[in-house]
User: What shape does this take?
Amino acid sequence: VGGHFSVDHMTLDAQERGINDFVKAAHIRHPCSRFISAYAYLTSDICNPGDKRWAKEHIGNMSLDDFILKLEREPGLTGKAHLRPLHHWLFYPDGTFGLDVALCQENWNESLDVLGEYLGGSDRIPKELYSSHSLQNAHNSCAELRPETRQAIERVYAMDYCIFGFSSQPKTGCQQTK
Assistant: This one.
C-alpha cells in the first residue's frame, strides 16, 4: 500500500467509471518489519528530498529506539505515509474493510496464489510478480530489537496487529491473506 490514496478514493464513482467489479488487493507487511524499513529509508541517503526534510526535522539523529518512543508521544507523526498504520489505508469512511485480498510481504508467493483464485486462476498473475517482493536491503530484524522497542512498536501499531492478526514477531505464514 502506498501513495496518498485510501481505498475510498480508489473506488470513488466506481460504478460510473465502469470499474466497480474488480478485486481489491493491497500489499501489507508486519508492522515491526514495516517500521524498521520506514526508519531505515527515512534516515538513508536514498529517500526523496521531501522525506529528507521531514526526517531531519522529526528524526534528526535519533536511534530507532528513541524514534518509536517519540511516535508514541506524538501520534500525529504517524500521519507520514511511510509511518501511517496500514488500517488507515484499507477501510472506507463507514468502517467497512475495503479489500478482498491482502498480499503479505512475509509470504508473497502464497498471497499471489490467493489473488489468482479471486481472479479466476493463478495463470492470471504475471509470473514476474512471483518472488518480486523479497527484501532488497538488509535491515535489522524485529527479533534483534530491544524488547521495550518491540513493545512500543506494538503499542503504536496496535490496531494493525489486531486487525490483521499479526503476532509479535514476523512469521513466514500469513493468516491475513483472506
Summary: The beta strands are 25-28, 101-104. The chain is about 40% helix and 5% strand. Residues 31-42 form the longest helix (12 residues).
